[in-house]
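Notes from hallway chat w/ T.B., transcribed later so I don't forget. T.B. wanted the structure written out for a chain they're using in a teaching module, and asked if we could keep both sequence and structure tokens in one place. Agreed to drop them here.
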Amino acid sequence: MDELRHLRQGESTPARVGLGITGVSLPTRSLLTFQMDQAFARDAIQDELATVSLVQEIAALRSGSALQWTSEETPVLHSAARDRNVYLRRPDLGRRLAEAELAAAPCDLAIVLADGLSALAVNRHAVPLLTELLPLLAAGTTLGPISLVVQGRVAIGDEIGERLGARMLLMLIGERPGLSAPDSLGAYLTWNPRIGRTDAERNCVSNIRPEGLSYEKAAQLIHQSMATAVQQQLTGVALNRRIGQHQPVAQLLNPMEP
């Protein structure tokens, strides 16, 4: 067990490795830490999207941006799941909008923030990530309204992107909480979002948080994925196959163009 000491001390991973043993049980410290982390994960699932503060923070982003925004609004939308209990039992309802009206001028990129399984992740990390990402976009890029979705899952972005006439959709959503990471943010990129898209048609950057993938690094990866998607007009497995068959990813990473 001594060779695992550096892992237990969190030098290489926060994962539970070599926790030790006292008699026939875990040491008390390890057991209490496990119970505390499990409570954090449960709280994250039940947490609520901080819509009021997010709307204010997004407005600040918009006022300082040189991008071409198609709307000054930040729509707060709801999925067809009326509450958290229904959302957890009926994943299909979390993939569809409850509202019928959502319209704006066509845009190059639409961004959606949804609570997913950890609103805590969105509340903490979505705006800091966008603060790093938006300046990387080309000046001519048209950006649709940044939408907030309560009780939303990844696929609900397809409906929003379709209604906004977006060429590409970026969904930022709280990932399933883990015992060492209750606040991981995921970023899903979909080219030509339309109802009926599958997960195989998306690219994902995950574990975005200070203890995981930093905001700066995540923004760079997302921007690189956007640039590749624009050039190939694809995302997902089909894009990965095309890149693998023809040329290295690095040769495709040009600045995003409208």
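Follow-up for T.B.: DSSP finds eight helices and eight strands in the chain. Might be a good example for the class.
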